[in-house]
Specification:
Elements: H1 8-13, E1 23-26, E2 33-36, E3 50-52, E4 55-57, H2 59-74, H3 80-98, H4 104-111, H5 115-125
Antiparallel strand pairs: 1-2, 3-4
């Protein structure tokens, strides 16, 4: 019998390969591979990932895809300053849509912008935070 310095409850919480199946996914855009232990057999991608058209995308690539979509709507003829503004707005709007109940400060931190920019984007989208 092996003895450890961890309390018994901590040992019970440690994941083991024998108790659960380890899943692996690779992002279709950046090719980052991640492994995780699914909570159920239906969980096909890790938290914050999505599957779109049979392809899995990580959170960073989901943000970039939102930016790409916004820039595509703008077209090729935009000035660099206007393109930068659209890029920033697209990230903020993505974060709001991803989790509308998240606090504006948390979204601002994730989007690297001000809380005021998040508030303006919420008004523009018509999405209020649930209290």
């Amino acid at each position: 019998m092996t003895t450890t310095n961890m309390p018994p409850t901590a040992e019970m919480l440690l994941p083991t390969e024998t108790s659960k199946e380890i899943a692996e996914r690779t992002c279709a855009r950046c090719e980052m591979t991640t492994t995780w232990i699914p909570r159920s057999k239906r969980e096909k991608v890790p938290a914050n990932w999505i599957t779109k058209n049979g392809q899995a995308y990580c959170l960073a690539c989901r943000r970039e895809l939102a930016v790409d979509d916004a820039l595509a709507e703008m077209g090729e003829n935009g000035a660099p300053a206007a393109r930068a503004k659209i890029r920033s707005q697209a990230v903020v709007e993505f974060e709001i849509r991803r989790d509308p109940d998240r606090r504006d400060g948390d979204i601002a931190r994730a989007s690297r912008c001000s809380v005021m920019a998040v508030s303006k984007a919420r008004k523009r989208l018509g999405l209020k935070r649930a209290v």
